[in-house]
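Protein data:
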Amino acid sequence: MRRMGKVINVRGNNIIVTANFAPKTFSAVYDSTFKLIGWVIDVFGPVNTPYIRVRLVSDISLSDIKGRYLYVDENKRLLER
C-alpha cells in the first residue's frame, strides 16, 4: 500500500485527489484507517503531479473525507467489465 495523495474536491460519488504518481486504473483506494473507500477511475493532468478521480463506495461520509490523505493498493484491482 502506498500513500496516493490528498483529497481536494468532492462531487457526487466521485472525489479528486492530487498525487505524486499515477496509480493504475481500477486500483483500490483506502483511507488512513485502511478502510476501502473506492476505486481509481481516471488519471489526468500533469505527469509529475497528476489528478486522480476516485469512484466512492456508497457508505462514505463525504464531509469527513475532504482534505484527508488517501492510500492506494495497486495489487488489488476492480475487474473491468
